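Re: duplicated header lines in exported structure tokens

Our pipeline writes sequence and tokens for each protein into one text file. With two proteins the header for the second block appears twice in some exports. Here is an export where it did not happen, for reference. First protein block:
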Amino acid sequence: MNMGDFFGGMFGGQGGGGGGQGGGQKQVRRPKGPNKQHEIFLRLPDFYFGKSVRFDLERQIFCSVCKGAGCVAWNTCNQCGGAGVQDQHIQIAPGMIAINRVQCGVCKGEGRSRGANCSTCEARGLVPQTKTLEVKIRAGAAVGETLVFDEVCSDHADFDKPGDVHIRIMPFEEELDLVREGKALRHVTSVSLTESLMGCKRRVKSHPAHLEGLEVDIPAGTQNGEVLCVKGLGMPSGVASEFGDLFVRVEVKVSDVERKTLETHKVLLQGIFGSVAT
């Protein structure tokens, strides 16, 4: 009687035959290995124009000679004859014998044993490899955007496929007179009271598309805290020929000279602005 399924637990057996070669037990491989995370740091012009970055990924791949086995040949297990299991006959009563099928203790259920070691990988089954990845960052790419390279991590005997490499693009810490907010660029400038009344020009030094600086008009009568919008001078939107806007916040600062002038010519200024108001 084959009562292994019934008595296997009682006698410490495994009951029934395993998978793999000859019915022996074999390790179950998971579908895909773990992913790896890397970060690339870019400057504002790199985000504005786009950039191609290459870096070397050090990884381990299956040996092409032994296909990851670590040996050049396999020998059939002499103990189980390649079955991977052995039958234990246990007499439980007169005329009644239970057959308990257990994993072969010599080959551990493989049904085979290793032959000569592979000299190419020194029996490791893996060899080192340097793989060059080219990361192409599009113009206007978002901060934190992640690019995925499928199945380029190291090979591993526990997994059917290697994991992915995730490249996250992040900004350098730079001292700029511009701040990026999505497709918008923001700039803060200070003007005197006279300049706010009469109008003036200011230069944005860090704009990626204007290496010599971008000149911005501050209209006459601009108020403290007013935000001016310059169309089309923000970041690329990702769509051809479309850009966000540049926003310039104006801070009016009254100088000591201007304060004294206001006090000295108070009556004159009241007459001027009073007549304007009426």
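Second protein block, exported in the same file:
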Amino acid sequence: MNQNPKVLVGSPLFDGMRYCIKEFLSTMKSLTYNNYDILLVDNSKTDDFFNELKKEKGIKVIKDNTQETKNIRRLVSSRNKILQYAIDNVYDYVLMMDSDVLPPPNIISELINCRKDIVSGLYFTSFLSSGKPKYLPVAWQFITAEEFEEMKKTTIFPSIVKSHSDLRRHLIQKEYKSNKLLKVKYPSAGCVLLTKNVFQKIKYGLIDMSGINAKTSDDIYFFDKAHELGFECFCYTKIKCEHLTEGKYLKDKDGNLIHPLYTWLSLNL
């Protein structure tokens, strides 16, 4: 690969992300790497947001007129349009960003220097744990066979859990505070760098919703396919990103924040 690889910073989005788009674009335009382009793929069901985005200078905007009606399937379509654009325009890397994630300005050079086919920064979000929201890292580690055997002594797993490979855990504090490059099962998908070795071979999709990952998204599908093809995934915990959640989260009747994924999936799949 050349000494100054060409990077496509791509983000799928829709009009529900208006609350964070100005901060996101300001951050993307301020990245310190000197050979990158910004591509937004808007899958909103109207053209209003797209027409607003087209007025922004220094970025490329594509309207995704997918016929998919479900939100998560529209997201899959937009992610794949980013990958196809990178293939068609001969990029060396794709930095796949979520539009509510703000990385440090040196994210591209730092992740390239990791020399991995799939490597992310790190950010946190709210997850439901035992019915309560907890702020946890969006990155998951493998469960070892030994850990699984210990867990079976105190936990009754559903029949779909056949082995340790069916499970995962969030990074723990000593891991996410280590500032180290960690091999992980699933990296932080909203700030992940992919080499062309990866994005030429894998597309986003949806998993079988009857399986263990039934409440996960297109990102899990992508990384599972990567593992199947022999790619390893990494998270560089030094690269910590801000996650703009204030305009995104729903609240229950008690005022507690609820991650929208669960409601979103139940309504839209």
